[in-house]
Amino acid sequence: MGLDQRLRLMKMIMIMVCALLGVTQRSMSWQHNYGEALSKSILFFEGQRSGKLPPTQRMTWRKDSAFEDGFQLDDDRFFDKVDLIGGYYDAGDNVKFNFPMAFSTTMLAWSVIEFGKFMGQDLNHALDAIGWATDYLLKSTNIPGVVFAQVGDPHGDHNCWERPEDMDTPRTTFFVSRENPGSEVSAEIAAALAASSIVFRKYHNVEYSERLLQRAIMVFDFADKYRGSYNDSLGSYVCPFYCDFSGYQDELVWGAAWLLKATNLPNYWNYIKQNIHNVKNFGEFGWDSKDAGINVLVSKLLVNNPASKPFTLNADKFICAVLPESPLISVSYSRGGLLFKSGGSNMQHATAYSFLLMVYAGYLNKANKKIDCGGGVFASSRRLKQVAKSQVDYILGNNPLNMSYMVGYGSKFPKRIHHRASSLPSIDQHPNQIDCKGGSSYFETQNPNPNLLLGAIVGGPNINDEYVDSRADFVHSEPTTYINAPLVGVLAYFKSHPY
């Protein structure tokens, strides 16, 4: 080899080494503290608490609120007052919407079932977050033949900008019954109670677990026997806020699937087989549509069982609809790599779909299989985890704006989130009441929110990876419980499996 050839070869080697070093340095610069993100993602739920806060409350700028919930009924022919103190405000307002609250609870419970062993000291905080919801859901289902679906008039609430501690808007309580059914909200509550019963049985609270399970069975029977949508029963008080667009059939099968997992009773398996034909949107999953979640959950319950075939086929279709390289893809990705679907609060899709990817990755490992998406694309367990991790990393800062979309994580994150309690001074700083319109100036100011809602994940950027840090842009700047809940489990996994 001549001198010139050797020099050219050395130059090529140096270029390759530099390129490899560059990749390594970039990879190292993007390593995230998943343990910190996990802790904050759970802490967020303390900022959403309603009712009497416990002495262990860590988000101390939040105070007690809504002590008369259940005292104002939309129909008082059946009872005068009920105790509906507690639960969670679902987002940046002060209404308790039980449909998305129950879904968030189901996802928190599923996170602990699948990934609780990786949570370390955060496991107890996750159990507290679940228990705060289930205590309230037990209250909401305490009267046979009645399920309380919502506390607070959303029209009055959304006309005000005030702290939950100061609320003077109507706290009207809405319920469904035999005469005015609500199968979706009732069956989702049943799913949440059943999933949570599994958690507390596993973590040494057997008596509470049994109470949750028995209530789940009762509420599911009510949801199934008196079928109908709460859209029709409660009308403009739930629509358009959390209108059930996908119908209630998916919630019924979802509830049965969780009861099957909790009890292993054959009647729930028979129910699923008889009703699964009503679940057709294999590519959908979230507070409104449980279809993909049903197929993933049942596939894991029946791993390597021939009876699982229709569920695994549809779960495989879901995976192929999500993978970026799949010829069957039905979602979109921004240039920066964030998963997108139509509708508001897009980050809910990124977190919920990532969770299903992680759960199904575990199924693929147990079944020792890959998914054939066609066109030479085969999805392995490792590939599913890679896609989920790309979504987590985008949320935490691996994006074109180098911005974390989790409040309090990293050096650059949303400062003006659409959240009443966060944007108004705490009672410690401003002890006098701020009435309905008294908070308007805090909403309109360009100053950062005075209280950090640590761990809150906002709706996120648009499909062009652009984000305007504005309270008024609620589609992108509002956090919700159902954005955070699925990410809890995913973060727990990557905390213990960074790669």
UniProtKB/TrEMBL annotation:
Key word Hydrolase present: yes
InterPro entries, alphabetized: 6-hairpin_glycosidase_sf (IPR008928), 6hp_glycosidase-like_sf (IPR012341), Glyco_hydro_9 (IPR001701), Glyco_hydro_9_Asp/Glu_AS (IPR033126), Glyco_hydro_9_His_AS (IPR018221)
GO biological process, any: cellulose catabolic process
Pfam families the UniProt entry points to: Glyco_hydro_9
Catalytic residue list: 418, 469, 478
Coiled-coil parts of chain: none
Signal peptide interval: 1-29
EC number, as in UniProt: 3.2.1.4
Residues in Glycoside hydrolase family domain copies: 34-491
Keywords on record: Carbohydrate metabolism, Cellulose degradation, Glycosidase, Hydrolase, Polysaccharide degradation, Signal
Record field: catalytic activity: Endohydrolysis of (1->4)-beta-D-glucosidic linkages in cellulose, lichenin and cereal beta-D-glucans
Gene Ontology molecular function terms on file: cellulase activity
Family note: Belongs to the glycosyl hydrolase 9 (cellulase E) family.
Protein name (Swiss-Prot/TrEMBL): Endoglucanase
Protein's organism: Cicer arietinum
Gene coding for it: LOC101505115
